[in-house]
Amino acid sequence: MSTTTTFSGEVKARLGVDAKEIIGRYPHSRSALLPLLHLVQAEEGYVSAAGIAFCAEQLGLTKAEVTAVATFYTMYKRRPAGDYHVGVCTNTLCAIMGGDEIFESLKEHLEVGNNEATEDGKVSLEHVECNAACDFAPVVMVNWEFFDNQTPESAKELVDDLRLGNDVRPTRGPDNLCTFKQASRLLAGFADDHATEGPQAAGPSLVGLELARERGWAAPDPDDIPPAPVLDEGEGGAK
Amino acid sequence: MTTDAQPATTLTPVLSRNWDRPDSFTLAAYREAGGYEALRTALTMEPDRLVDMVKSSGLRGRGGAGFPTGMKWSFLPADNPKPRYLVVNADESEPGTCKDIPLMMADPHVLLEGIVISAYAIRSSQAFIYVRGEVLHVIRRLKHAVAEAYEAGLLGRDILGSGFDLDVVVHAGAGAYICGEETALLDSLEGYRGQPRLKPPFPAVSGLYASPTVVNNVESIASVPSIVANGVEWFTAMGTEKSAGFGFFSLSGHVARPGQYEAPLGVTLRELLDMAGGIRAGHELKFWTPGGSSTPILTHEHLDTPLDFESIGSAGSMLGTRALQIFDDTTCVVHAVGRWIAFYAHESCGKCTPCREGNFWMVQVLDRLERGEGTEDELDKLLDICDNLLGRAFCALGDGAASPVMSSIEHFRQEYIDHVEQGGCPFDHRRSTVWGAES
Questions:
Q1: What is the pTM of this model?
Q2: Counting C-beta atoms within 10 Å of the first and last residue's C-beta, which end of chain B has fewer, N or C?
């Protein structure tokens, strides 16, 4: 954990270049605050006092104003996250489908509580709210990449692999996981090269389309639709 | 059972129709399937004609509230000199809702084309996509699509030689369900804690940076290109009179084949369950949500209620985001509701006393009830808290919390009493899990 309350000159200079780019995206500079907090989290693995001071300085805000924002959002961590931050959804649907059991077994297996990291700093764990993958329940996220359809066994294997440094591939994501810090940098708005990796869609996302193909179902053919009676110049765009 | 007069509803893949090609998220694949032709058409039209077109289509917001999209656009004041902004709400976080995330992952360009057309229609040159931060690969795909679009002259200056300029910024959130509420989203986008604003003034008049702003859901905007390409009559040929068009019906929970089923509005749960392979073997439907946790729960009584705004409204619930969470007989209603209220308590921004204190209080009551340490009087206490919460806060988060509590007590009062009388939960929670069904 950082014991200083400001970044070194080198860090400030380097992040200052990034900050300038981020701030330049918005008509009003304060809009850059959320991305800047992701940026400082990318530097240290959490949002520290130094990170807060940096954001305040960049945007002409007080540290209190920045702290108010940093403490509102759940993705900004107050203690260092592990290299791999594991989120288990325990909102109702995932919980019922097995998320509760997965979370309990991971707490026991890793010997950590909610929002805590393992001694080796490799893995941190928290229970998360609905991550918009309910058709893939129970869902686990690692550094905000999808690990769909988990079981207690697969989840334990997953965290073991993470701690051992074995290759781990998200179910709907890039070929490899990036670290928590690298993920935060992406969230700050700096793209990486991995967008084209991974499936376009998988499993449950495709069941409706597959059924429609099988049954020959489709939306109406626009050519089959009689045009409305023309009341004025017409609406354009049809066909 | 469908009546003789009404043929069974079939699926209408429009937004999902290219999802089965591995490169569907690329500009090349999108163009091959006819993408950005609607934009060419739109750019030859007067912006106001486009607004009229979307109005006539009857497209209603697909983010839960169902407000007519074209009408929202028409509220922008003609005489306001401030710049106009288009903000896409990609903060999908309503429990059970899982349609926008796969859409943006599989086909971000349909959203982008919708953004360009919509921005042109409302005369905006700056659009933001506020996407929740917890979906890293979706953010990658969005940024990649935006980069491709700029490179191809579909974004930036003088788009397709039309003289229309548009910049798009992909902005990641940082974890807050409340930021899916449009005014809280705007506060968050401005760099503040995401707390809702009082309406009026509405965003159309005073939104982002106190300027005229349109905030629309991903699926709403993504539906615009097909309306422009295929016409108003095509869109209204699907759905019902007041709930036109198609939408994603997201099935999750105890069904054989959960997933995304794109269908005309008005399809029934019975029809969707039939398509999805029914409730898992050996079990029966117990309760379900039509539109996410914030919509009152329904039961087998409502299997044939058309899933459109009016019919579900008349049934005492809300269509919401068509997030159909399906729970069978192995599910403890008290536990399910307890988890939902823990969610609302967690996500409450804290601004309004009834929501902040009410949810905090209900979590404790529900916890006691689930553990068998409550009394039957506490059911009345829950309803009393809900009465002080529903309609008493700045935004619908508080209302959303009241929904599962009130509707579960209405439909499953005895189950709460069973917990009281039996000193604990009579259900084996393992049996509701994916692996525990047979135990």
A1: 0.97
A2: N
Q: Which residue has the tokens 């940093």?
A: A70
Q: B435 Cβ partners below 8 Å, 6+ apart?
A: A98, A151
End-to-end CA distance of chain A: 62
Chain A residues whose beta carbon lies within 8 Å of the beta carbon of residue B244: none
DSSP string spanning A152-186? HHHHHHHHHHHHHT-----SBS-SSPPPHHHHHHH
The ipTM of this complex is 0.96
Reported as a pLDDT band with limits 50, 70 and 90, residue A238 is very low
Closest CA to A129 of B176, B307, B415, B404: B176
Q: Which amino acid is at B6?
A: Q
Q: DSSP E strands: which ranges in A144-207?
A: 145-147
Cis peptide before A227, with omega less than 30 degrees from 0? no
Interchain pair A134, B250: CB under 8 A = yes
Q: How many residues in total does chain B contain?
A: 439
pLDDT in tens, B226-266: 999 999 999 999 999 999 999 999 999 999 999 999 999 99
Q: Measured between alpha carbons, how far is B429 from B439 in angstroms, rounded to an integer?
A: 10
**CB contact residues (below 8 A), chain A span 107-146, against chain B:** 128-138, 141, 143-146
**Tokens 């739109």 belong to which residue?**
B42
- The SS3 of residue B389 is coil
Strand order in the sheet with A145-147: A116-117, A123-128, A84-89, A140-142, A145-147
Is A191's CB within 8 Å of B143's CB?
Answer: yes
* Alpha carbons B158 and B312: distance in angstroms, whole number: 45
Q: State the best of A75, A200, A214, A217 to mutate against chain B, taking most chain B CBs within 10 Å.
A: A200
Q: What is the pLDDT of residue A237?
A: 42
Question: Tokens 């039309």 label which residue?
Answer: B162
At A62-106, the pLDDT tens digits run 999 999 999 999 999 999 999 999 999 999 999 999 999 999 999
- Using left for φ > 0, alpha for ψ between -120 and 50, and beta otherwise, residue B81 falls in alpha
Residues A18 and A165 sit within 8 Å (Cβ to Cβ): no
Chain-chain contact of A31 with B93 (C-beta, under 8 angstroms): no
Cβ contact B343–A92 (<8 Å): yes
Residues found in chain A: 239
Q: How far is CA A123 from CA A83, A87, A106, B137, in A?
A: 6, 10, 11, 20
